[in-house]
Amino acid sequence: MKKRTKILAGLSAAVLALSAVGFGFSQWSSNITLGGNVNVKGSWDVGITDAKIQNISAGTVVDGTAVDVVPTITVTAYNIYADYCTDFNPNWKEYRFQIDDENPITLELTQEEFNEYVGYYAVSGKVPAGYKYYMSEKEGANVHYKVKLTETAKELGWETSYVYHEIDDNGVHDGELLGVGFAYHIVSPDIPKNNPWGLKIYDHDALADELNANPPYSYYPATVDENKQTATYSGVDLTIPGAWAEYSVTVTNNGTVNANLNDYVLEVAGMDGDIVVNAPELTDEVLAPGASCTVTFVAQVPADYAEPTLDAQGTLSVHLAFAQDTVEAAPAPSVTH
After folding, report:
1. Which residues contact 67 (CB under 8 A, 6 or more apart)?
2. Are 109 and 128 in contact, with CB atoms under 8 Å apart?
3. Segment among 27-41, 210-224, 251-265, 292-306 with least mean pLDDT
4. What's the CA dihedral at 221, 225, 230, 234 to 10 degrees?
5. pLDDT tens, 83-137?
6. Calpha distance 270→265 (Å, rounded)
7. What is residue 116's three-state secondary structure?
8. Minimal CB count within 10 Å: which of 40, 125, 212, 277?
9. Which residue, 287, 289, 291, is CA-closest to 321?
10. What distances in angstroms separate CA 117 from CA 114, 182, 186, 214, one per listed residue?
11. Are the C-beta atoms of 100 and 137 separated by less than 8 Å?
12. Rounded to the nearest 10 degrees, how much is the dihedral formed by the CA atoms of 129, 133, 137, 141?
């Protein structure tokens, strides 16, 4: 019996809640306990995060206030100060660039602002008498800059492409801001693999192409209600055959479970034959937690509209129905021998 008792004690240690209690030498008994945590955890939060009339054709008039968007590019730039060189070399009656590379500036530039950065300012890495163009005193960086000059620099007659300017005025402008510039080229065969100076270098032509590829545009925002379930767009007049308006809505899943687009209804009331609405095929669309999707649709007067007068008034409504994942039927409880 001692051997048997020792075996059961070992099982009790290995399998939770399985134990043996001896009743004398002739009776055994086991109390079996099963336990586990069941958590109810989940949230449903699917709503509209953006809605707008994002594009219109000629012949379309929107009864709303447009929001103008001017695309920008982001560049790291540096303030450039006037350094009167007599405090460095008494024989130099000139101002030189002093670039504050220790305090870089982040700029968001529109096309118009970007075009104000001009010139071919070549900052040499080799300067007579060891002069430092950078406040950090870095050396050896042969860098070309695009610069937007201040009025002070223009009044001094600063020449394009020169980083120094000879003038004997006893340094009355010493330390003043000459402009802001960003680096667009390093004269080194190893660049961009080797940039030991830590300067941010841009491809000027690539920046210009990026801006040209994203011209300014306007849109008309819709009004989204507080519960983010309904959006109301501005009224639209389509005045000639072929005229159209493009609508968009962005839906975001801020919940913790999938949201499945299982149905949508698009209706036009009161515009029999005067307008058609084109929408994408919406099937098997799953919006994962944290994800967003944007749906666009276009309302248009048929281009082949034959009547001499457009005179109808109606409403456009779109209903998107999102639902949780389908839950399979729970199994029936059972006992198996």
Report:
1. 218, 219, 220, 221
2. no
3. 27-41
4. -30
5. 888 766 777 788 889 999 999 999 999 999 999 998 889 888 776 666 788 998 8
6. 16
7. coil
8. 40
9. 287
10. 6, 8, 17, 19
11. no
12. -100
Least confident of 182-196, 215-229, 235-249, 281-295: 182-196
Using DSSP, state whether 83 is helix, strand or coil: strand
Partners of 296 in the β-ladder? 248
What burial letters (b/e) apply to 305-329, b meaning 16+ CB within 10 Å?
A: beeeebeeeeebebebebeeeeeee
In this structure, the number of other CB atoms found within 10 A of the CB of residue 69 comes to: 12
Token duo for residue 238: 């389509």
Per-residue pLDDT at 25 exceeds 80: no
Which residue in the block uniquely carries the two structure tokens 């001009």?
A: 118
For tokens 């660039």, what's the residue?
Answer: 97
